[in-house]
């Protein structure tokens, strides 16, 4: 089963629809979609290392545009933004987050944008708290670009060796990946 899923992801990564799909996932993840673009970005870079930085650029631009939508949801549709935050289990930390944003908003955006924490939390909260919009866009471009281009550089440089290792021990790496995902979810719930 894992082999079929693995092969399917790489087939999609090589398909003519891969780049538009990556853009859609990157855009929606920054505003409301739960799946991070790394799920597509990694296999796409491994399938086509020569296009690593192009894919990172697509991810960055689409993510920043999606972040603007997330900001607009928080700013103009605050009730919808609060519903999304509640769905993600973060509505109860609203007041603490507001104080944190008022004191260190730029750092919150920069740091959280580099982590696997769902970026939509930051974009929607930035709109709700009416964070300075031009600064928000600039910070999103820096943090998301930094994350995706760093991922592209690592995978372009060491990806083929990593890919060979993963393919030899797919089950073991799947368990490790699942453990990382569960750990990230637990960490997000604790924040």
From TrEMBL:
<dbReference type="Pfam" id="PF09335">
    <property type="entry name" value="VTT_dom"/>
</dbReference>
<keyword id="KW-0812">Transmembrane</keyword>
<feature type="domain" description="VTT">
    <location>
        <begin position="59"/>
        <end position="149"/>
    </location>
</feature>
<keyword id="KW-1133">Transmembrane helix</keyword>
<feature type="transmembrane region" description="Helical">
    <location>
        <begin position="128"/>
        <end position="150"/>
    </location>
</feature>
<dbReference type="InterPro" id="IPR032816">
    <property type="entry name" value="VTT_dom"/>
</dbReference>
<feature type="transmembrane region" description="Helical">
    <location>
        <begin position="52"/>
        <end position="77"/>
    </location>
</feature>
<feature type="transmembrane region" description="Helical">
    <location>
        <begin position="170"/>
        <end position="188"/>
    </location>
</feature>
<protein>
    <submittedName>
        <fullName>Cytochrome b561</fullName>
    </submittedName>
</protein>
<keyword id="KW-0472">Membrane</keyword>
<dbReference type="InterPro" id="IPR051311">
    <property type="entry name" value="DedA_domain"/>
</dbReference>
């Amino acid at each position: 089963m894992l082999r079929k899923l693995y092969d399917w992801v790489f087939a999609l990564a090589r398909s003519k629809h891969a780049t538009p799909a990556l853009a859609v996932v990157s855009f929606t993840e920054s505003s409301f979609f739960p799946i991070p673009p790394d799920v597509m970005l990694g296999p796409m870079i491994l399938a086509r290392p020569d296009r690593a930085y192009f894919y990172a650029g697509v991810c960055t631009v689409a993510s920043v545009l999606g972040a603007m939508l997330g900001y607009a949801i928080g700013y103009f549709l605050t009730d919808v933004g609060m519903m999304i935050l509640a769905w993600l289990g973060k509505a109860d930390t609203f007041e603490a987050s507001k104080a944190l944003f008022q004191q260190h908003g730029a750092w919150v955006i920069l740091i959280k944008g580099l982590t696997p924490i769902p970026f939509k939390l930051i974009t929607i909260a930035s709109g709700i708290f009416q964070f300075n919009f031009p600064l928000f866009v600039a910070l999103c471009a820096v943090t998301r670009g930094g994350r995706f281009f760093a991922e592209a550089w690592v995978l372009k440089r060491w990806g083929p060796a990593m890919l060979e290792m993963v393919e030899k021990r797919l089950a073991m790496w799947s368990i490790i990946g699942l453990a990382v995902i569960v750990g990230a979810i637990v960490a997000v719930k604790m924040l």
